[in-house]
Request: fold
Amino acid sequence: MAKGIRDKVAILGMGCSKFGERWDAGPDDLMVEAYIEAMADAGIEPSQLDAAWFSTHVDELGTGKGGTPLSIALRLPNIAVTRVENFCASGSEAFRGAVYAVAAGAADIAIAVGVEKLKDTGYGGLPVGNPGTLAPQIIPNGSAPGNFAQLASAYRAKHGVSREDLKRAIAHVSVKSHANGAKNPKAHLRKAVTEEQVLNAPMIAEPLGLFDCCGVSDGAAAAIVTTPEIARAMGKRNLTLVKALQLSVSNGYESQYNGWDGSYFHTARIAAGKAYREAGIERPREQISMMEVHDCFSITELVTMEDLFISPEGQGWRDVLDGFYDADGGLPCQIDGGLKCFGHPIGASGLRMLYEMYLQLQGRAGERQLKDPVFGMTHNLGGAPASNVCSVAIIGQEGA
Amino acid sequence: MVGIAAWGAYAPRLRLSRKAVTEANAWVAPNLRAKAKGERSMANWDEDALTMAVEAARDALGPDDDRSAVDAVYFASTTAPFVDRQNAGIVAAALTLEKAVASADVTGSQRCGLTALGQALAAVKGGAARRALVAAGEHRRARAASSQELDNGDGAAAFVVTAEGGAARFLGRGSVTDDFVDHFRGADSDFDYGWEERWIRDEGIVKLVPPAIRKALEDSGLNASDVTHFCFPSTFPGMAASLAKTIGIAPEAVRDNLALTLGEAGCAHGPLLLAHALEQAKPGEVVLVAQFGQGAEALVFRVGNEVGNARPARGVTGSLADRKGEDNYLKFLTFNGLVEWDKGMRAEKDNKTALTTLYRNQDMILGLVGGRCRETGVVQFPRTRISVAPNNPGVDTQEPYRFAERKASVLSYSADYLTFSMSPPNHYGMIVFEGGGRIMMDITDVEPGEVDSGLAVRMVFRIKDVDEKRGFVRYFWKAAPDRAAMAGDSALAAE
Reply:
């Protein structure tokens, strides 16, 4: 097995724009906002950047293809810019590119920037995409909530959980994230909600109501990475190091072979297992200090608790209801509000998750600060349960 | 002797209450209250003449999906989705018929369903075909508050014609052709334009139909009194009985024209009445079916000894039983494109179809054909060069495998209120098939609360999308509750 990425790369600085309905800002403005914060945090000049990775998902809204939108918006010094896109996991993909370039020695300092400007469609929810020429002739006329909602029916069937219990558990997922998001000045949705509000919200895709769905937001996030040696030479202390970076991609097993029962993410289990091995983590439920997972929908977060081997299979809903993932629980999840409330500008989300884990590890999370975190995990998913890409990343303290 | 070896029928599940229509329109057309009795069949938004004909044809052909013996296919309709793209070719592709099949669209008159059947009988009799499939389907549009809206129904019937024809032996045919324009629909018109009813009845039906019937009886070597089942669709009350009296057919031979239960399904209605008669007739009885339309067509059959064995799984009898009452007239208007409604921005997506992609994947899209690995037996959809089997991904080991007639059930689903649907919420989910394979697909003919994991479903051929900009209709398969299987289950449970 490959030696892996553990402790080879340090995060030098990060930035994140305010997420939300940014009627005032185009994609360029959002990228600049995240970039200026990250550069100030890193304490470097543009001339010190060797290479950039740029993630954005929705072509149709005009952020642009290729590397030029980033290079022009940030006036980068004609360095390499690679545009990456891997559905909603695009931000993690940009981070992976930058980290690997540094680990390979091809770049001393690299930057990853993710952005999405979603609120230029004229309607709520994600833009209706263009799935090509074959897919629209056979795939259902569906939406993201409709695809993810299917986890619920399959989970109920597999584990014998009643509609009411599961609905209440996923409601708690959202109540918890709203409580967390209320403490985050950069979050899109900053109001606490009650379980009753969540349960009685308009139905979007059965059984997911409005509050079971994450915010559709504008935003950008950025990470600047280098080697631990260079970071130390620059005078940085208390380094945040990359411990694991894994990506698992569906190959049709879930969607075409009768092996998968529809209640979990096949890829997440593979990526999580590899990430723990890469980071040297044996007891994730005890060792992981906090995590940001891809809570595009409440049911996604619930089954992910099992896919990451934190909750035993079939018991995730009980842990959720017990408050294990609340801010004051055993393993705080979505401490920044998550996709649910911080928001979900697709190309930026993976980097936004890392941003919160980084702030927490640096002790700079303000009102949300957790006590002495050691390992922060991010789980960033793209696609749909039956066919997806799943990134699991772990960052942590030096020496951990 | 040439004749009918098998038949099938289809009526959409929804039945629109005529009272709901007449009450809604009473302010403008109070006279229509006289037509408030009974119900009419109402196509779901994703059904048209062609999809209904495919369902009737599947009913006639039975569950065996080896249909290689069919060597001719006739599709009859005056409401075919395409004016210039052979509709029978779409039927053939949906049924995975051989490419060497002969095919024709028969259209242009309300009697074209029987014309197609007559042509199939002649082709088999003459040796040009050995096993011919005839499918007639109709989905007529009518203006809101018109009497046609109340009289019409949607439906389809199909027949398999062979040299043996064990279910019903063909005895004779009579035709009259006369350009009597009782109504017409121009090439660019959506709706019929009709003349005065009394004239149609007295100068049209009364004068033009009897000669066709007499010719058919003469051709058969029978007297009118020999007829035991007389099928004649007409929206004029008592028309069939009156014709029977004129011709000398016994009054008890006149069959129910299904006006109160289905409405009149245009060119498919004569075929539907024939199918219904075969479901109730005894061997040796004589069935005469005739239909009017710029002249008339009449066919005579003697019911064969095999009629009981040939009875289809659904037929007209099953179609009548599988019904769901619909009181929402606005839904009917919306499904039929008679209301300009706010579909929302999500409906603005371009539904242009890549014809190259469609042709390259024709058996997948129109025939629901996937693949089976020759080495592992693993079944999958779609067929791919590298097999999906996780531990044995063979290369180029896939042979075609048909899914359309396989039993299936719901693994996971959602009812989606966000996405655009002509009939929200849009249900869809992962469908798993007995024998292997799974497809994420739309689920149709369901109401909220009806679907859950484990629901038994069957495949139905439906409209996937309509490209209104270019006038193209996309077809694909969907899952619908297998109500027959569920009824079987509950019967077992009761035991």
Summary: Chain A touches chain B through 46 residues (CB under 8 Å). Residues 163-181 of chain A form the longest helix (19 residues). The first strand of chain A starts at residue 10 and ends at 16.
